[in-house]
Design brief:
Blueprint lengths: L5 H11 L6 H8 L4 E8 L2 E11 L2 E9 L8 H15 L4 E7 L3 H9 L3 E10 L4 E9 L6
Parallel strand pairs: 3-4
Antiparallel strand pairs: 1-2, 2-3, 4-6, 5-6
Amino acid sequence: MRSCHLDAVARLEQLCFSTPWSREAIGDELGNPNAVYLVAVEAGAVLGYGGMRSAAGEFYFDNIAVDPVYRRRGVGRKLVRAMADCAKEAGGLFVSLEVRASNLPAIELYRGLGFEEAGRRRGFYQKPAEDGLIFTKWFEENDK
């Protein structure tokens, strides 16, 4: 992701999340050496984006968003794979994320990509209040 993508990503935040990040908060991550933010672009249009941060070999997804018009077309799958590949190539031990317990399409996607449910954060989400499920994908030593 580059600064030229910030307006489109901020629009996606507004479309996809009940408590969206600001354009400025996303822009700050572009200068964070422990963050990786990717965009899916087709014909100059941002279809989706994903971001994660790392600490001590652990990678945590911050957000993954796909424009509702482009959902169920593989955009999210490609973003999640690309982010996991970045984490693995950087020597990460695992990648982890939270997802709304009601977000069945996302849960299906994560399971299909080798993520396993690792826990539950009670009341993690607001607007509406809902539990977050923790999904983690571990990288095996021989995969590095």
